[in-house]
Amino acid sequence: MIEKILVPIDGSDHCRKVIELASDVASKYKAKVHIVHVVSPLDRAHELDDNLLKEVEENYQKFAQKIIAEAEMEFKKKGVESYRSAILRGDPPKRSCSLPRKTALI
């Protein structure tokens, strides 16, 4: 039986299909869902102006909030009541896989 599902999202078309599959599985098994978007740190080697850097980071945050909200709506639509969302910073594969053990990764 599946109790927890980790759903890393990036806003891509492929990701939308993953969300649909995960919401179906979560609904069927009454599983808890962890929706995660990981923002990669910006490469400071490009020496961006501080104001431009702040604007880029704000846009990343807005995008992350948007795709999290879209994923939450899909889970709600499928009747999934137990979910948590997080926006993390760091290397996406490492951060996504550092979350709770005994969690199915979709």
In short:
The chain has 106 residues and is of the alpha/beta class.
Biggest sheet overview: 4 strands, parallel
Identify low-pLDDT runs: none
What's the pLDDT, averaged over the residues?
86
- What integer value in Å does the Rg equal? 15 Å
**Overall tally of domains:** 1
CATH architecture verdict:
3-Layer(aba) Sandwich
Which outline best applies? elongated
**N-to-C CA distance:** 15 Å
Number of helices: 3
Estimated share of beta-strand residues: 15-25%
CATH topology: Rossmann fold
What does this molecule look like?
The protein has 106 residues and is α/β, with parallel strands linked by helices. It has a single domain, classed as 3-Layer(aba) Sandwich (Rossmann fold), CATH 3.40.50.620. The chain has 3 helices and 4 strands. It has helices spanning 13-29, 50-77, 92-96; strands at residues 4-8, 32-39, 83-89, 104-105. It has a 4-stranded parallel beta sheet. α1 (13-29) links the parallel β1 (4-8) and β2 (32-39). The longest helix has 28 residues, at 50-77. The chain starts with a strand and ends with a strand. The mean pLDDT is 86.
